[in-house]
Amino acid sequence: MRVAVIIGSTREGRVGEKVGEWFLRLAGDRDDVEPRAVDLVDFDFPARYPDHTTAHIRDFVHEVDRADAFVVVTPEYNRSFPASLKQAIDYAYDEWHTKPVAFVSYGHGSRGLYAVEHLRSVFTELHTVTLRNGVAVNLLDDVLDERAGAASLMLDQLHWWGTALRDARARRPYAS
Ligand SMILES: Cc1cc2nc3c(=O)[nH]c(=O)nc-3n(C[C@H](O)[C@H](O)[C@H](O)COP(=O)(O)O)c2cc1C
């Protein structure tokens, strides 16, 4: 099952790269998922939502299209998720439909959970299924490896949803 691991922070000096690499290593050790890094820092998106698509937008949309499931690695900025993530999410539409989305969040005391709640609302609009279970990291206190058990359960559940929905898509078209 193809899992796109979307690294949402593009901030200079970001922690997101380390969190994303940690998660990709764990996912890469499994034989039931095929994780692929989709790091938003690699896409040169336009400053304004363009009238016509660009090569980098097409590349991002293609990554969404080819995936069976998603893990969004998100920090929390002022009780929400970063603008870089919203910009990217909004470039795709149909390509998100009927696929599961799981979250690896991080921040200070709230462990990125306010960001996740906002993302759930966005991803509902995009006809996805968001997972109840996730990985939430307090950067001030937590050791990443202590979250390995949570990551493993989340991937088990993502695999369940990802294969169930992929089979359902193959059987009959989604009503939208
Ligand atoms: C603009 C900004 C706002 C932030 N707001 C919050 C917040 O509301 N809650 C929180 O727990 N951490 C907050 N933080 C701390 C970030 O979660 C922390 O700096 C994290 O490393 C940011 O992710 P990044 O380094 O991958 O960009 C904020 C950080 C920034 C830069």
Keywords:
six-stranded parallel β-sheet; 5 helices; 19% strand; 176 residues; binds flavin mononucleotide; single chain; Rossmann fold; globular; alpha/beta
Instruction: Report the average pLDDT across residues.
Output: 97
Number of domains: 1
CATH architecture: 3-Layer(aba) Sandwich
Low-confidence region ranges: none
Strand % is 15-25%
Described by the principal axes of the CA atoms, the overall outline is: globular
As for the CATH topology, it is Rossmann fold
Total DSSP E strands: 6
Helical coverage, percent range: 25-40%
Bound molecules: flavin mononucleotide
Q: What structural class do you assign from the helix and strand content? A: alpha/beta
Main sheet properties: 6 strands, parallel
What is the C-level CATH assignment?
Alpha Beta
